[in-house]
Amino acid sequence: xxxxxxIELPAxxxxxxxxxxxxxxxxAGGLYVERSIIxxxxxxxxxxxxxxxxxxxxxxxxxxxEIKGGDWGFSDLFKICGWMTYLxxxxxxxxxxxxxxxxxxxxxxxxxxxxxxxxxxxxSNTHETLQxxxxxxxxKEDIETIRFSYLLERKQLALIKKLKKSDPAIxxxxxxxxxxxxxxxxxxxxxxxxxxINQLFNYFIEYRNITAKICHELxxxxxxxxxxxxxxxxxxxxxFYNPSNTIIQVSLYIEHLARVTILKCAIxxxxxxxxxxYNATDITNILNYLSLPGTIKSGLLEISNDSYFFLYPRxxxxxxxxxxxxxxxxxxxxxxxxxxxxxxxxxxxxxNAFNAFNKLFPxxxxxxxxxxxxxxxxHNFFPIAFSGIGANxxxxxxxxxQDYDELFKGLSGSKTSSDLTKWNNLAYSILK
Length: 432
Fold this sequence. Notes:
The protein is α/β, with parallel strands linked by helices. It folds into two domains: 31-133, Trna Endonuclease, Chain: A, domain 1; 141-431, no CATH class. It has helices spanning 16-28, 74-87, 103-112, 126-129, 140-166, 171-186, 193-206, 210-218, 233-241, 247-274, 283-290, 294-303, 312-321, 332-343, 350-360, 384-399, 405-409, 416-431; strands at residues 32-40, 44-56, 59-68, 92-96, 115-119, 326-328, 368-370, 376-379. The strands form two sheets. Strands 1-2-3-4-5 form a five-stranded mixed beta sheet, sandwiched between helices. Helix 2 (74-87) links the parallel strand 3 and strand 4 (92-96). The two termini are 21 Å apart.
């Protein structure tokens, strides 16, 4: 078994790393975070750093957040004000890493524009600076792990652009790039939750089995062959048994992100409906709802009966970006207790949170798979590099052992340590 190598980050974040740092605080603090959202029509109109959603029992409040690691001035405030007007948001937040002598003057002027200007020049006080946003106390390990995931995401998305440029004849690269844009940005500006679910699900159908089709094309086949629904044996082994940084890993991530985004919009819909914000006589809302697939409609109904459904988006982001899509069964109670602490969902309700995925996207035998000869319960077709981030998180949280030895001592299964090692080392090879 090859040795595991711990992943490390620079202590002082700059530029994009600084944006990741602030976003990680907010996500670890209990907010659902959507990042790098591009509004494009004939030309690109704007790019939003992040939009946070604060999910509560009867509300899902949005906050537009702009983050600046370098120089800034009034032009940035007016730009944000323009976005607020264009997007019909009542308030926004502007977080800056570099302070100015006249920061109080700028803060007062920002307040007139309904923008909360936050001076975060002293990184040692970031927790206190962002305290008003946080529902959960984020730890150093949580923040560091989410930053790993964001960096991993950026590097994997960059791989699509690189491959598109180096081999433009391959259809797969263009289609995957389009799919990510539509999921992350294209659907974002549809603010009605039911209409957005419809749009997302249409994309979901349009790009169905995209990972298998990419595999098929790269093996010499036709991307548009609709009979292709499974990975070839060769692709499957290269993706899961001997994982490497391929476009297949990126595609698995984007497919998972699409499902999580649909879940997020489903919860927004349930909350809005419970508040009576959908007019029963509004023909547009009626038609949008009726056109939803039966599985989504029945799933919405079932999920709405769960006591903590409103926290499911937060739960699934944490499970994706921090836990890496798996549970260690030897210490399942410990894992559930940690998830409960980090997401606000009681331990007894966590099976319902996991089952929400299967209610919206029914899968024979469910979405979890007990990997043979391991103590790992793994979310099917989860991107392995992100599982490596989750392996590293367990090391940080449970043993804080640089080379994983102490963690492995407490786990059964002849393949558990080797699988966690492979996953960790794939993430490390991409991040380094």
